[in-house]
Structure formats: structure tokens, C-alpha cells
């Protein structure tokens, strides 16, 4: 039972409800980096819940669609920059491709609204707000992680890196924190609209319990050091995309990284960014051998990004090398490639488009799912290249039994947009979920060192040629999330959905 209908009649207008949904989605990105207004996530989710509770299935579909238009236009339209500025597409074509990209993503919140209003309309208000809504929200985030290659961006849980809810991340991961955000939205809405005082008091008490529990969990240390403090340096070459793939500029690139590295041989680990050297190892053997010998001499591990070719098959990989060991070089091949940026899906259909865009190194092969453990100074590391770090399950399984996380990226593709800050925030969540230090090396920024609590302990200024140095430690032990995976959350989600199908006897 809720309060007077007159108070909420205005949102029943189709135009007004769609406008509210559009604005609600449009402001949600401000909950994430670089803005960090985390409470917007609660309000946005609560507003969408309010709309969907009063909507027919198809009204909820369109409301979810308009929410998605606002969310992904404001929060992810930076893909336009890479398509137009660096891909060479005209303004109309780049706009069309970006619009199609957003249109695909919009299908997720649209179908989420359709499902919520279509399948669970007859349930009690409390069950829909506290069980069905949070469960469906994380289910659709999970679907967005892997369907059509996946786009695991702008999940509600990431917005809480600066709130007390971050305390739950080592237990339930980003999906679990998203569930809690949606649950808080349900509690807030019931607190506002339910007519029974006992429900209002209960919701208020639940909110207090949630926030206090998160605050209590924050100081908890789930992992422990397995090494003394190690100096680590991250080289930010600041080579623009327009120069990086110009063969005439290659000698300058080689000099930049060699000279910046030479000043930091006292570091235990030195990291170069993704595709720091835009040429295969076979073509610069002398250069790499010299760097490798220097690294061995100084007892330093150098982790660098470089395209790797399999000479027997002529297949190219987006790769990572570890120098500094007298034995065989450590190698990692990127497993989850960026569609259209690193490989071409439906090649016969889209090949003319890729030829037109002229995106360099856009025909990579994904690396095998199972690869040999990469070590730096004898420490097993969990390597990720670019947006691989944004896939929660892939990252969780990769980090098992590893002691340091290393992510190489090149966010210069997205210019001065929010993309680099958003991805760095996601990397912070990975460090917090697993209780590991994370070295985040980029070409133009934001280069950073993240501690096991997910805090940025050092960052380099963007768009500046520099070296960021800080202290890290190898970490051992497992957070509850690493021990249990997402199975407890899956069980909670299934129970919540089943409650949504339960009809009490009258």
C-alpha cells in the first residue's frame, strides 16, 4: 500500500516519464570517475524503480531505453573520438557508428525494464523493490559483460569506490556492490512512498545497517605482504597516436623508453605501456637484447607492451613481454580483444569499414585462454592489457595465486574524455576485490599505482612524458570473493528472482 496517487500522477505521463528516464540516465555517469558523486547512483536507480513500478511492460521498455540513451551517451560516447580523430572517419560516419554502438547498449536497460514490469507486476511492492529489482539489475550487468563481446562499463558498483559500500567489494565484488546499491534504492523508495510506518522504520533501519556494515568492513585486511617493499617505476612515454604508428618516428620512440628507463635501474619492476614499442620483437632484436641485458645486470624486471607475431602462422597478437630474466622471456598474449579496434567480427560484412577507418594493428588474434604464469623478479603477476581489466570474472580467475596485478593500457585513443578515469576506477575495484597492488601503466595517462585497499597511492600527470615511481609489495592470501567466486551472489540472485515468481495464497 502506498501514499496518495495524486503525488505521483505526473510521472504517468508518457512524455514526462521518458524525459525523467533520459535525464536519470544522463546524470548517472556523474556518480563515476572523474566526478565521484557516488550518491547519484542511489537516486538514479530509485527513480528508475519508481518509473518501472508504475509502468506497463512496454512503457518500462521505452523508459529503460531512454535511460540507456542518457547513460551511454553521457558516459560512453568517447568511442567517437577514436573513430573520428584516430580512425579517420568523417563526422557523419563517426556519429553513425557511435549511435549504433549506443543503440546496441540501450537494448540492455530496455529489456530489463520490460522484464521487470512484465513478469513481476503482480508481486508485492516490498518483494519487487528489495528482491526482484536488485537481482535483475545485476543479472543485466552480467549479461552486458559478455553478450556481443561485452561492455562491462558503468556498473553501479564502480561508483561506490569513494563510499563506505566499498567495504563489501572484497566479499561480493562489483556485482555484489551493484546489488547493494540497487537494494538501497529500493529501501529509499519504500521509505518515501509506503504508507505503513512500520515499513518506513524498517527501511530506515536497513539503510543504517548496510552503511554501518560497509564502514566496519573497510579496515579489514584480507591479504598480507609476501615481500619487503619493492620500488616500481611506470614509464609514461606520452607518444601521440598520430606519431606512434609513423615508422619515421620509431627511432625516437625507442630512444624515449630507453632513456627514461635508464634513470630508474634501481627499481625492482619497470612497466612500459600497451604497445609501447609499435613493432614486433623480431624487428628490434638488438634493441631488446640490450635492454634485457641491462635489466639482468641491475636485477630489474621490465614489463612492456609490444605486438607479437607467430612466425609459423603469421598471426599477430597484442602482447606483453617480461625482460630481466637470464632464461626465457616471459610472454603474455591478450585474450579479450576489442571488436573493430583489435579484430573484426563478421569480417565479410565489416571489412570495407575497417579498410576505410585505417585503425593500426586492428587484425589481432586472441591469445589462448590458458597461458603460462608470467613472473617478474620471481613474483607471479596477473597481466592484463587495456580493457581486459574491466571483465570481473576474467580478472578474478586470472588473479588467483598471483601476487601483483599489472595492467598496460593506451588510453590516448580516447583523447581528453572520461574514458581513462573510468577505466582507472575499474582497476581500483580489481585491486580492492583481490587485495593486491596494481601497477597501471599507460601511454599518456592516467598512470597510477593502486594499493590493496583500492586507493591511488601515486599518479602521474596526464599528457606528460614522465616516470612514476612508488613502493609496492607482493601480496598473498585470498579475499572472500577469491575463495567463493560469485557463487553466493548467484544463489542470492536466484532466490530473489524466485521470490518474484512466488504468489501468496489468498
What does this structure look like?
Helix content is 47%, strand content 14%. It has 2 domains: 5-221 and 485-501, no CATH class; 224-473, Nitrilase/N-carbamoyl-D-aminoacid amidohydrolase. It is globular, with a radius of gyration of 24 Å. The strands form 3 sheets. The chain has a 6-stranded mixed beta sheet with strand order 6-5-4-3-2-13. A 6-stranded mixed beta sheet has the order 7-8-9-10-11-12, covered by helices on one side. It starts with 13 loop residues before the first helix and ends in a 5-residue tail after the last helix. The chain has helices at residues 14-27, 39-53, 57-76, 79-86, 91-119, 125-146, 169-193, 197-217, 241-244, 250-262, 285-297, 347-357, 392-399, 419-434, 480-484, 487-501; strands at 224-225, 230-236, 269-271, 301-310, 315-323, 330-333, 374-376, 379-385, 404-409, 437-442, 448-450, 456-459, 466-472, 475-476. The chain contains 16 helices and 14 strands.
Architecture blueprint of SSEs:
Blueprint: H1 14-27, H2 39-53, H3 57-76, H4 79-86, H5 91-119, H6 125-146, H7 169-193, H8 197-217, E1 224-225, E2 230-236, H9 241-244, H10 250-262, E3 269-271, H11 285-297, E4 301-310, E5 315-323, E6 330-333, H12 347-357, E7 374-376, E8 379-385, H13 392-399, E9 404-409, H14 419-434, E10 437-442, E11 448-450, E12 456-459, E13 466-472, E14 475-476, H15 480-484, H16 487-501
Parallel strand pairs: 2-3, 3-4, 8-9, 9-10
Antiparallel strand pairs: 1-14, 2-13, 4-5, 5-6, 7-8, 10-11, 11-12
Helix pairs in contact: 1-2, 1-3, 2-7, 3-5, 4-5, 5-6, 6-7, 6-16, 7-8, 7-14
Amino acid at each position: 500500500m502506498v501514499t496518495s496517487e495524486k503525488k505521483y500522477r505526473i510521472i504517468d505521463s508518457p512524455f514526462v516519464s521518458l524525459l525523467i528516464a533520459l535525464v536519470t540516465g544522463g546524470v548517472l555517469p556523474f556518480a563515476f570517475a572523474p566526478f565521484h558523486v557516488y550518491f547519484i547512483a542511489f537516486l538514479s536507480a530509485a527513480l528508475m524503480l519508481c518509473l518501472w513500478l508504475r509502468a506497463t511492460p512496454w512503457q518500462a521498455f521505452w523508459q529503460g531505453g531512454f535511460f540507456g540513451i542518457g547513460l551511454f551517451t553521457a558516459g560512453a560516447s568517447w568511442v567517437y573520438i577514436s573513430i573520428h580523430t584516430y580512425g579517420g572517419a568523417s563526422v557523419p560516419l563517426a556519429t553513425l557508428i557511435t549511435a549504433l554502438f549506443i543503440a546496441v547498449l540501450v537494448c540492455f536497460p530496455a529489456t530489463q525494464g520490460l522484464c521487470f514490469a512484465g513478469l513481476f507486476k503482480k508481486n508485492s511492492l516490498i518483494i519487487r523493490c528489495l528482491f526482484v529489482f536488485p537481482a535483475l539489475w545485476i543479472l543485466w550487468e552480467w549479461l552486458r559483460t559478455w553478450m556481443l563481446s561485452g561492455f562491462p562499463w558503468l556498473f553501479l558498483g564502480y561508483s561506490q569506490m569513494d563510499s563506505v559500500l566499498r567495504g563489501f567489494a572484497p566479499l561480493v565484488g562489483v556485482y555484489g556492490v551493484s546489488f547493494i546499491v540497487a537494494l538501497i534504492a529500493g529501501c529509499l523508495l519504500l521509505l518515501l512512498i509506503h504508507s505503513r510506518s512500520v515499513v518506513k522504520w524498517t527501511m530506515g533501519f536497513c539503510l543504517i545497517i548496510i552503511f554501518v556494515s560497509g564502514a566496519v568492513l573497510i579496515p579489514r585486511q584480507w591479504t598480507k605482504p609476501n615481500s619487503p617493499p619493492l620500488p616500481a617505476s611506470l614509464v609514461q612515454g606520452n607518444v601521440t597516436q598520430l606519431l606512434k604508428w609513423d615508422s619515421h618516428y620509431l627511432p625516437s620512440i625507442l630512444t624515449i623508453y630507453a632513456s627514461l628507463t635508464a634513470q630508474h635501474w634501481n627499481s625492482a619492476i619497470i612497466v612500459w605501456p600497451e604497445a609501447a614499442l609499435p613493432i614486433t620483437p623480431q624487428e628490434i632484436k638488438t634493441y631488446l637484447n640490450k635492454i634485457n641485458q641491462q635489466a639482468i645486470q641491475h636485477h630489474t624486471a621490465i614489463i612492456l607492451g609490444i605486438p607479437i607475431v607467430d612466425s609459423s602462422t603469421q598471426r599477430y597478437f597484442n602482447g606483453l613481454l617480461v625482460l630481466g630474466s637470464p632464461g626465457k622471456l616471459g610472454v603474455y598474449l591478450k585474450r579479450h580483444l576489442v571488436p573493430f579496434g583489435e579484430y573484426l567480427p563478421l569480417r565479410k560484412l565489416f571489412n570495407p569499414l575497417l579498410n576505410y577507418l585505417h585503425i593500426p594493428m586492428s587484425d589481432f588474434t586472441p591469445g589462448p585462454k590458458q597461458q603460462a604464469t608470467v613472473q617478474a623478479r620471481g613474483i607471479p603477476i596477473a597481466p592484463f592489457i587495456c580493457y581486459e581489466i574491466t571483465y570481473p570474472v576474467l580478472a578474478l580467475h586470472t588473479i588467483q595465486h598471483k601476487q601483483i596485478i599489472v595492467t598496460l593500457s593506451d588510453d590516448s585513443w580516447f583523447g581528453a574524455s572520461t574514458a581513462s578515469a573510468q577505466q582507472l576506477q575499474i582497476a581500483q575495484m580489481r585491486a580492492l576485490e583481490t587485495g593486491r597492488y596494481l601497477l597501471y601503466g599507460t601511454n599518456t595517462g592516467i598512470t597510477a599505482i593502486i594499493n590493496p585497499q583500492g586507493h591511488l597511492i601515486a599518479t602521474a600527470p596526464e599528457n606528460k612524458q614522465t616516470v612514476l615511481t612508488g613502493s609496492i609489495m607482493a601480496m598473498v592470501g585470498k579475499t572472500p570473493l577469491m575463495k567463493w567466486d560469485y557463487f553466493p551472489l548467484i544463489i542470492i540472485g536466484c532466490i530473489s528472482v524466485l521470490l518474484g515468481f512466488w504468489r501468496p495464497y489468498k
